[in-house]
Amino acid sequence: MFWGSLELYIYPDARSVVRDLAPDEPIILNRPHAAARAARFFAEKFPGKSLYAVKANPSPDLVRILWDNGITHYDVASIAEVRLVRAELPDAVLCFMHPVKTERAIREAYFEHGVRTFSLDTVEELEKIVRGCTNEAGEAATDLRLCVRLRVSSEYSELSLASKFGVDLADAGPLLQATRQQADWLGVCFHVGSQAMTPFAYVQALERVRAAIADASVVIDMIDVGGGFPSVYPGMEPPPLEDYFSVIHRHFENLPVAYNAELWCEPGRALCAEYSSLIVRVEKRRGEELFINDGAYGALFDAAHVDWRFPVVALEDDLYEGEAEFSFYGPTCDDADYMKGPFLLPGDIQAGDFIEIGMLGAYGAAMKTGFNGFGNAVPVNVADEPMASLYRGDRIDPRESDNVVSLR
Ligand SMILES: *Cc1c(COP(=O)(O)O)cnc(C)c1O
Question: Which of 127, 172, 272, 317 is most solvent-facing, going by the fewest CB within 10 Å?
Fold first, then answer.
């Protein structure tokens, strides 16, 4: 048993954590080296600036790791995220990219936290930003960097972000013109949906950006291709991220924008999916259903609500029967606390056994609630590799398998 601070100790892997702690509650395993590697990859290879979308995982430790490895800009969506990142990283550039904000949040972000970049998708929001950034003497801000969010298709992504935000192409021209009047620096942003499985998602979006710019005939200083960069999960093997970067770069270069226009992206998932996994314990087995101690109201929201299949590994050495397909029930009393899977585990797994669930750094720990008293999870650091990685260099290129359409 290790009796010092868990936060400072680095375990070799999940099995050593189970041996040491035999935990009654879920344990979040963090891999700082994996987040650092993802950050360096984007900082070095994306042909522009990479903003970390904080909502994917707002852990202060993670934000610090990303900063230390070259991520200088942060996409924040609420005043709480603004405060959190500002407290952790006094010199970071914060960009308030939620298109619907309160005037008070805008005012605090601008005057107290140095935020200059805001996104919007309506004239009402533009007016709100202008009001929120006007000082007590009644002088309007002259240093606003504004991004008009364009609605684009989510059809190439696993999780849609198409219906909620973004101005329609038909209305984009007038909104870009109105925003140009107030902005020192004008950008166009969009989001193709999360876990975009092909670079073509960005091609169709950038074609829509081209049409919007042509309609508006205004000078554009920045194009922000948003998030959507994928990670690796069972049944979801995306092409290499370099393919996304080169396709985006090529199409960006052909847009009618200012000669010194910048290219931005806002990865959430891709920067942190590999950061964390989770240890859970089987509390009960009923046929092929395992009752585990985390679920839909914990770090497994996506497993329950969109049937996301996270990779799983049994952490017991004495299991031997061939693999079987299981579904999971979470710990709360709600029937909806159910994860269909299928999750492949040894056929003789039983109550008391531990399981590691991988690739939960993005939209995992961030979604945890305390519903029914089951929100606890102790974080510890581990040194081993995540269950899958886009950044290790030894991944088999799925372009060499025949189920991926080539873009070349
Ligand atoms: C959620 C979100 C992101 C991050 O999306 P990922 O799919 O996790 O990369 C980026 N930008 C905005 C505006 C978002 O809402």
Answer: 317
- Judge: domain 3-30+277-382, CATH 2.40.37.10: yes
Q: Which two tokens stand for residue 144?
A: 């606003």
Ligand 1: residue of 191, 223, 244 to mutate (most ligand atoms within 8 A of CB) is 191
227 lines ligand 1 (CB under 6 A): yes
**What is the reported pTM?**
0.94
Domain map (residue ranges) of the chain:
3-30+277-382, 32-272
Query: For 32-45, b where at least 16 C-beta lie within 10 A, e where not — what string?
Result: bbbbbbbbbbbeee
> Which pLDDT score, from 0 to 100, does residue 303 have?
94
Ligand 1 mean position, distance from CA 53 (Å):
6
The alpha carbon of 266 and the centre of ligand 1 are apart by a number of angstroms equal to 6
Give the atom of ligand 1 at the shortest distance from the alpha carbon of 195.
7
Phi-psi region of 330 (alpha: psi -120 to 50; beta: other; left: phi over 0): beta
Count CA atoms within 13 Å of residue 303 on its CB side: 35
pLDDT tens track for 18-41: 999 999 999 999 999 999 999 999
Asked if pLDDT for residue 2 goes beyond 70, the answer is: no
To test the pocket of ligand 1, the residue of 189, 194, 308, 359 to mutate (highest count of ligand atoms within 8 Å of its CB) is 194
Distance 225 CA to ligand 1 centre (A): 10
More confident residue, 372 or 394: 372
Ligand 1 binding pocket includes 199 (Cβ within 6 Å): no
Rounded to whole angstroms, how far apart are CA atoms 160 and 168? 16
Architecture of the domain spanning 32-272: Alpha-Beta Barrel (3.20)
